[in-house]
Amino acid sequence: MINNNTQQVKAYLAGVNLDDPGFDYSMSELAALAEANNYEVVGQASQKAENVVASTYLGKGKVAEIRDLAQGLGAKVLIVNDELTPVQIRNLEHITKLRVIDRTELILEIFSSRARTRQAKLQVELARLEYELPRLHPSENSLDQQRGNGGAAGGGGFANRGAGESKLELNRRTIGKQISAIKRELREVADQEAVKAARRKASSVPKVALVGYTNAGKSTTMNGLLREFGGGAVRGRDGARERSKEVLAKDMLFATLDTSVRRIDLGDGITFILSDTVGFVSKLPHKLVDSFKATLQEAKDADLLINVVDASDPNMNQMIKTTLAVLDEIGITGRPMITAYNKADLTGRAYPQVEGGDLLYSAEDPASIKALAGLITRRLFSGYGEVTLVLPLAEAGRSLAYLHARSKVVSERYSGDGVHVVARLSPADKERFGQYVVAADADA
Ligand SMILES: Nc1nc2c(ncn2[C@@H]2O[C@H](COP(=O)(O)OP(=O)(O)OP(=O)(O)O)[C@@H](O)[C@H]2O)c(=O)[nH]1
Ligand SMILES: [Mg+2]
């Protein structure tokens, strides 16, 4: 846990702008990430360049300038906007006499301090160790004490930075062993999860996943749907029974690091499984995305994605791009998606408002949640309809068992020519039982 009583460590930010139109946005994101990690941002500098400098990331003159500015402002830490090589970190620390933290380490620290469940903790730890392994070196500017108390993550931190040269080989070997052990443990957790996920996948209940930029309101949206239509807790990612159906929603980056799965029952036999998962940020470290694969599996299995966007944020369009890029990286493309523009109450626009397949809404507003539910229903269940079937007696038993498990059976009546069944079927099941359909309703 971050201890707010201790003094914040002052940090200076720096970034190289490779003619990237999203550069300013990524710097403001970096500031938010630093603040989320309890650093006090005292200033920032950037440099336009065609390439980063291999030895020092920024140009030598810029580094000297930053050193003077940052030291003048009392900064102890220099946070840079990209992932650095071990050599760049070492050289920058040598010249600036500041503790240097790159964007990846910053994100890992936040994840580390937020992880609660065993799976999330293991996943973060794995990404952290894999990041740390090639970077072990004796720090010249040991700030481990400040880091331990203030800005740094509580989950162990990057303590090896302060290690002496003689300890390095030992540390490398120890870390190698830790990585193997964590991977083993994660496989066990993943196996248990996979069994449950496979069971859900096999069931015909459609799956909807909330995805999107961190702090957009995914968890608030899930809680809104639970409040209006909660059909009961399914389970938490830690496998424990949920004490409450609702999930943690909080004004902070990466409040959610796990996946929660809940059943939503809209009535009339319309049920779907909803999942809420970790949020995204741009330049999310590949190792982290990689180690969170199990957590993101639920989104991969979803029939419909709800991309929750903070419509009150001036960087909204960048955030949408970021989300699509991360989804692409985990291999989720071309999936049916509703873009849900949240926090409409902060935009001054009228809401809820459905436009095409998308929605402007507020997750805290019951009418908005109902509009979202309506939209989900339309997207998920279009093509569903009530049909009357006459099942031949010879195979009625098996077919009825199937229909009861996978659809809403409205009525069934035995007669000489077979079993007359009225049921609400998916398009696929309508086709499957096509030869027995005697009447079909055109409703959606
Ligand atoms: N004004 C306003 N605030 C909202 C709305 N929806 C969510 N929030 C606030 O936005 C903050 C973030 O909400 P969460 O639901 O935790 O966001 P999230 O997308 O789950 O974020 P992470 O789990 O951190 O990725 C909280 O403080 C919410 O109260 C809304 O419609 N209007
Ligand atoms: Mg959340």
From TrEMBL:
It is found in: Cytoplasm. GO terms for molecular function: GTP binding; GTPase activity; metal ion binding; ribosome binding. Its cofactor is Mg(2+). GTPase that associates with the 50S ribosomal subunit and may have a role during protein synthesis or ribosome biogenesis. Keywords: Cytoplasm, GTP-binding, Magnesium, Metal-binding, Nucleotide-binding. GTP binds at residues 212-219, 254-258, 276-279, 342-345. CDD domains: HflX. Monomer. Associates with the 50S ribosomal subunit. InterPro entries: G_HFLX_dom, GTP-bd, GTP-bd_M, GTPase_HflX, GTPase_HflX_N, GTPase_HflX_N_sf, P-loop_NTPase. Pfam families: GTP-bdg_M, GTP-bdg_N, MMR_HSR1. The keyword rRNA-binding does not apply. NCBIfam families: GTP_HflX (TIGR03156). The keyword Lipoprotein does not apply. One of its GO terms (cellular component) is cytoplasm. Residues 206-384 form the Hflx-type G domain. Mg(2+) binds at residues 219, 256. Belongs to the TRAFAC class OBG-HflX-like GTPase superfamily. HflX GTPase family. This is GTPase HflX. Residues 137-158 are annotated as: Disordered. It comes from Lactobacillus equicursoris DSM 19284 = JCM 14600 = CIP 110162. Residues 148-158 have a biased composition (Gly residues). HAMAP family: GTPase_HflX.
